[in-house]
Known about the structure:
This protein is mainly α and 706 residues long. Among the domains are: 1-122, Serine Threonine Protein Phosphatase 5, Tetratricopeptide repeat (Alpha Horseshoe), CATH 1.25.40; 140-217; 223-324, Serine Threonine Protein Phosphatase 5, Tetratricopeptide repeat; 599-706, Alpha Horseshoe (Serine Threonine Protein Phosphatase 5, Tetratricopeptide repeat), CATH 1.25.40.10. 75% of the residues lie in helices and 0% in strands. α19 (295-308) runs parallel beside α21. The radius of gyration is 36 Å and the shape is elongated. The relative contact order is 0.02. The mean pLDDT is 84. Keywords: Repeat.
Amino acid sequence: MYCKMGRLDRARKVFDEMRERDIVSWNAIIGGLSKDGDYCEGLMFFGKMQNGVNGIVPNSVTLLNLFPALCKLEDVKLCKSVHGFVIRRKFRSEVYNGLIDVYAKCGSIEDARTVFDGMRGRDDVSWGTIMAGYVHNGCFSEVLELFDEMKGKNGVMNKVSVVSSSTAASELRDLEKGKEIHACAIQNDIDSDGVVATSLMTMYVKCGELGMATELFRELEEKDLVAWSALIAGLVQSGFPKEAVSLFREMLQEKLKPNSVTLLSVFSICAELSQHRVGKSVHCYSLKAGIDSEVATGNSLASMYAKWGFFSQALTVFHKIRHKNVVSWNSLINGYAQNGKTQQAIELYRELMLSGMKPDSETIVGVLPACAISRQLYLGMCVHGLIIKSGFVSDCHVKNALIDMYAKCDRLSFAETLFNELDFTKDEVSWNAIISGYVHNSCFREALSAFCRMKYEGLKPSTISIVSVIPAVSHLSALPQGMAIHACAVQMGFQSITRIGNVFIDMYAKCGRVDLSERYFDEMENKDTVTWNTMLAGYAVHGHTARAVTLFSNMRKKNVSLDSVTFLSVLSACRHGGLVEEGKKIFYSMNDDFHIEPKLEHYACIVDLLGRSGLFSEILDLIEKMPLEPDAAIWGALLGACRMHSNSDLAEMALNNLVRLEPVNPAHYVGLSNIYAQSGKWVEAKTARLKLTDAGLKKIPGRSWI
């Protein structure tokens, strides 16, 4: 009685006062100790009952009460000692079933299988237990092999067998086997059981059969919170976030209160879809339910706010978590890094190290990109040292992040050394990292070579692979290779992806084939602002002014969202085509019609446009009224116009400003000297050349291919 009430102190007192103890009293105290978490005490009493003056032989109940303690202690040697006792006493199958479970939960699945194979009278519990043991140890293929063997021997499937088999099919994404398991569940009349149905439902979701999963869910007579949570989690993990949000709202309408498991899935969805309103509402619910400070809920909440870039809220949640773990820190470090807040990510990493908590591989993968972006090579190398000490060097994700960090910190040789290590099993991300590293370091031929090697080694390029290698094609004007990569993208089914379309439009334009860019642009169904801007820039660079202006006009008619890049491209086109009035109209419409403040590059473009037409008074008026301090590009554009129109007085003013901004650039002095020479002012031309010599500068000599 006292054991069942959880009053072990009273139970021990009564047990110690007993003059004579029988098997029932020993079983009760051993079972009570195991259940209450006193596992070592339970084992000690198991020894005592046999070693006393009136030693009592344990029975099957004793062993079944002892097994939970063995599972928790995870001591295989102890398991084998008990196993030896079981063999000597020749117990029934229920004890052997318990042994299978104990070995599996202690991580010794081979011993569990030995027990199973040695059993003469296997029942449905034996099959279910060994299957569950394999699932516990992540051996999913073995589970399905057992399922086939059991079917072949006309074994009866119970709930544990079905749940274990469907879990294995789910993890292996084996839809056909999953359907076979579902058929067995129907045949054994257990498909309507809540646990079985939930397991089958999860399997269908993970195998991409959303319709079947939903149908199973709708057929459930009593949908408990576990079923709702399972389907929501399954939808999230399988890439159906919108459907998951819809189901969550439906669950709330059914007056069901979500638990922390449900909330973890919902926070994950809200983070991915930027569902600010839903996320904040669910946060309020977690506050009222008092589960916001639980570590798992707090971590998920902090991660959600960090991914949105709401760092004050993320920090508030972080500080409220009572017992922070490394995942808590990772949530913020990754959030900062992903939102470009590299310094904050690095500072938080330092705080983590000072707190005494050990970083895990997720921490490393979060902080290394921050080191890469902020070019903090020394810190990156320190992290590399920690990786070696902590044994993370064999982790593929960690090594990929290291390769990326060294490449972006201009230590390409280090990145290559890591990449070429013989024991490194490269994945698609590894190849993407080295390809983008080559491009970053202007090693364009090496980038193309790496892309070809990746395909030769049997890895399929992803969208990131294509986007990473195309800049190398553009810089080399390697049109044949670009067309081959285009064919590869089509073969992989990427042609409908907007981002892929954008890079090919840009690549063809930079390779001089605007006609192919134009054809690809016209064929694209899903265009975004970048698509239009890329085509516009292609027209501008190749001097197709009329086409650029027409395209800009079409953008306005189709209500495409215009940005500063759009205006820079169309102004550049107007500049090349000498469309002064059109250019001025477009420039002033930026602020007046679209509320986009012109940047320095826009002013430089319009100054160059006006300067080519000799409209110097308008240029001076524009420079005087502009809200920004003119930079070297603006004064350089003015100097170029002065040279074109031999305006030596204004050129001197432009040069003075250029020298102030870029005092060591010899081109400015040479440009002024040439302007004076064109105007016949030879003394002034000589003076400009002397200023060049006095400043200790030299004109960089020109070169010719001839």
